[in-house]
């Protein structure tokens, strides 16, 4: 067994049989190993890459210059609007004087508003259950008609309409006693006929047209 301090040999062999001396346990500085350089024979040369930005002379496409559009001519500056000035503060300007004036209303026929009033009584015959038609009948009975042909045609038309409606209503009341029930039908058609003739008459009077056949039975 080795004693302390042994062996004195510079080469310590205790580590070969499982023992290690303090000298063998001391760290020793190792020099770094030099990296191995690859051999020139084993290197593979890189493949050449195509240059995407530099084209060969044979494949270069000539680029034509874009046509330059001519510059548009400058537009003249807009002139401010100059309103016509009136000669006086109380006189209208020429632009206002050139406007068309208001339309003149059509003249009322010779019958005046009386013709329109009778037509209104005819149209309100159904809502008033015949009371307004009775008033209109009294208004056109027992007096002379107007002198001008337009108003006279409407006056005779109103007389024929109201008298015919009155006779039809009287016949309808009589037929109320008949068991066949013709009274309500006669009065219903008489009311429709009265309102239709009244509407047609006031439309023609408003348009200034006379009644073609004022003594006729149809509209």
TrEMBL record:
Region listing for Disordered, in residue ranges: 1-80
Name by which UniProt lists this protein: Putative membrane protein
Superkingdom, taxonomy of origin: Bacteria
Record key words, sorted: Membrane, Transmembrane, Transmembrane helix
Transmembrane segments: 116-140, 161-180, 186-205
Amino-acid biosynthesis keyword on record: no
Organism: Brevundimonas alba
Compositionally biased tracts (Basic and acidic residues): 1-11
């Amino acid at each position: 067994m080795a004693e302390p301090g042994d062996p004195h040999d510079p080469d310590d062999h205790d580590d070969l049989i499982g023992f290690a001396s303090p000298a063998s346990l001391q760290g020793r500085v190792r020099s770094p190993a030099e990296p191995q350089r690859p051999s020139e024979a084993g290197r593979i040369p890189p493949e050449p890459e195509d240059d995407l930005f530099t084209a060969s002379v044979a494949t270069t496409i000539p680029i034509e210059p874009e046509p330059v559009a001519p510059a548009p001519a400058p537009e003249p500056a807009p002139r401010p609007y100059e309103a016509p000035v009136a000669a006086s503060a109380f006189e209208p300007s020429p632009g206002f004087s050139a406007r068309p004036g208001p339309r003149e209303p059509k003249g009322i026929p010779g019958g005046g508003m009386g013709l329109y009033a009778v037509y209104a009584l005819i149209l309100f015959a159904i809502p008033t259950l015949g009371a307004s038609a009775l008033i209109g009948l009294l208004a056109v009975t027992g007096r002379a008609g107007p002198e001008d042909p337009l108003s006279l045609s409407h006056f005779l038309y109103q007389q024929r309409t109201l008298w015919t409606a009155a006779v039809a209503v009287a016949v309808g009341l009589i037929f109320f006693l008949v068991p066949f029930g013709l009274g309500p039908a006669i009065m219903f058609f008489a009311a429709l006929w009265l309102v239709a003739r009244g509407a047609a008459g006031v439309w023609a009077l408003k348009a200034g047209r006379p009644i073609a056949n004022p003594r006729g039975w149809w509209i």
